[in-house]
């Protein structure tokens, strides 16, 4: 399976980490996907994907053509088809808001069909991308179509982005109450604005940011000091760290590391794959 990444031109690069195209035989049929602090969009040309949560035997949604993936507060499970072919977008934290006319909290723990939010434009987007003559032409067209959806963002979102910057800088280890005081607004107001422009409260965003930094700090091929990592991530003790880790990944830290090491041994290119692990 080939992953091709494309960094969009300004102003889209202010909102999007990358556009990408995934094509080929899926290496794994089932993946446990971990929550990350950003939204995701997929435009599919192949077979359907199914998504379920940890406590559901049946999928809660089947994804066919195109869809938005909101931020999740725990892991979810994705059943992949045997081969895949789709365009996707990895948004920056807070980057999806200018493309949607609704509070992003409505997408929390949800996978939503693109046409439910973009109407007939969703079908037009998919058809035009499908007909692109080359992959690079597809990326260029994707940028043009996204610019057509880019909307003005209220000035109040500036406070949210200041808060985002501070949470990211502190790697999620900070007091939201003190952050609100630093910004000169109430904690309730910051919560409301975060739910609108980010999709989750700032405390939850800090939690996911802290978790993401923990995953990035782990080199699966090197010894890992979990006690040190828990301390650096601001946890009071190892038990609280372990409990949060299980909630977010479905694995204990030691089981997660064992599975990551096995995956990296099988395919060294998977060393930097942080957001998911295959389910045997």
Q: Largest beta sheet: what is the strand line-up?
A: 1-2-9-4-7-10
Overall structural class, as computed from helix and strand content, comes to alpha+beta
The number of helical segments is 10
Overall average residue pLDDT: 92
Tell me the fraction of residues in β-strands, as a range. 15-25%
Q: What summary fits the major beta sheet? A: 6 strands, antiparallel
Rg of Cα set? 19 Å
Stretches with pLDDT under 50, minimum 5 residues: none
Shape: globular
**Relative helix content:** 40-55%
Strand elements, count: 11
Order of helices and strands: EEEEEEEEEEHHHHHHHHHHE
Using the 3D structure, state the CATH architecture of the largest domain: Sandwich
Distance between the termini: 19 Å
Provide the CATH topology of the largest domain: Jelly Rolls
CATH class bucket of the largest domain: Mainly Beta
Number of domains: 2
Structural write-up:
This protein has 280 residues and is an alpha+beta fold. The protein folds into two domains: 2-149, Jelly Rolls; 157-278, Arc Repressor Mutant, subunit A (Orthogonal Bundle). It is built from ten helices and eleven strands. It has helices spanning 114-118, 120-130, 135-149, 157-169, 176-183, 187-197, 202-217, 226-232, 238-249, 253-266; strands spanning 2-6, 16-25, 30-33, 40-44, 49-53, 61-63, 66-69, 76-79, 83-91, 111-113, 276-278. The strands form two sheets. It has a six-stranded antiparallel beta sheet with strand order 1-2-9-4-7-10. α2 packs antiparallel against α3 and α4 runs parallel beside α7 (202-217).
């Amino acid at each position: 399976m080939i992953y091709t990444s494309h960094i969009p031109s300004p102003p889209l690069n202010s909102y999007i980490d990358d556009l990408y195209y995934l094509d080929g035989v899926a290496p794994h049929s089932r993946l446990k996907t971990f929550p990350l602090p950003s939204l995701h969009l997929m435009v599919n040309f192949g077979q359907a994907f199914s998504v379920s949560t940890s406590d559901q035997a049946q999928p809660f949604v089947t994804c066919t053509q195109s869809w938005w993936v909101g931020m999740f507060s725990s892991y979810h499970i994705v059943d992949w088809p045997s081969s895949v072919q789709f365009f996707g977008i990895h948004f920056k934290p807070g980057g999806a808001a200018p493309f949607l006319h609704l509070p992003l909290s409505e997408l929390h723990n949800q996978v939503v069909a693109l046409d439910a939010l973009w109407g007939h434009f969703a079908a037009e987007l998919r058809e035009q991308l499908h007909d692109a003559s080359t992959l690079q032409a597809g990326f260029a067209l994707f940028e043009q179509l996204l610019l057509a959806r880019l909307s003005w963002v209220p000035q109040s979102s500036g406070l949210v982005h200041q808060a985002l910057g501070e949470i990211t800088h502190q790697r999620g280890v900070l007091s939201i109450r003190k952050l609100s005081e630093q910004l000169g607004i109430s904690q309730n107001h910051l919560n409301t604005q975060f739910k609108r422009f980010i999709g989750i409260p700032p405390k939850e965003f800090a939690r996911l940011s802290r978790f993401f930094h923990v995953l990035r700090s782990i080199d699966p091929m090197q010894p890992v000091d979990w006690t040190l990592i828990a301390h650096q991530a601001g946890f009071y003790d190892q038990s609280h760290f372990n409990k949060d880790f299980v909630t977010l990944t479905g694995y204990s830290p030691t089981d997660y590391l064992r599975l990551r090491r096995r995956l990296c041994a099988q395919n060294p290119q998977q060393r930097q794959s942080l957001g998911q692990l295959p389910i045997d």
